[in-house]
Design brief:
Helix content is about 65%, strand content about 10%. By secondary structure, the protein is mainly alpha-helical. The longest helix is centred in the first third of the chain and has 30 residues. The model has no long low-confidence stretch (mean pLDDT about 85).
Amino acid sequence: MTIVTGTSPHSLDADLAHEVTRLREVMERTGSQMAARRGHELDKAAYAVLFHLATDGPRRSGELAEGMFADPSTISRHVAQLVARGLVARTADPDDGRATVLAVTELGQQAAAAVLRYRCRLTHVVVGDWDDADKETLARLLTRFVDDLERHRPTLLAGALNAPDLTSALHAAPGDPA
């Protein structure tokens, strides 16, 4: 479905916004359906916590929350799941004995590696018939997009773009500007 038409410079932005939204929706639906079939007991977000710790190394819960742009209570809930399953361990912070540091266990490293291999197989199903140049272009542009999204996050969160008032738009008469 095309909502925006024409050749204005913003139509490319609209096309990109539509495809990014579509990507998110398809990935969320597919991931939820696959998880339901497997009967996983871990939240998807808990895997993200595991991968951040496996990639970035041991850290305090607050640092982890900050690095993941998440609320500390949310991180705490996911960490509790990971600790209960032996994937993450809490150890005393060598710099401050009153604090704890979260670290991936050997079992957690094995789980993260297995999930990464699984994600690579899934990605290969989708882009397996692409040539390497197309895969490299997509990887480069996705990296750039995510890096720029992170860079612009403060502006987006500050409300500088003023989201539209959808209530007014839904009640406007056809043809009236919202």
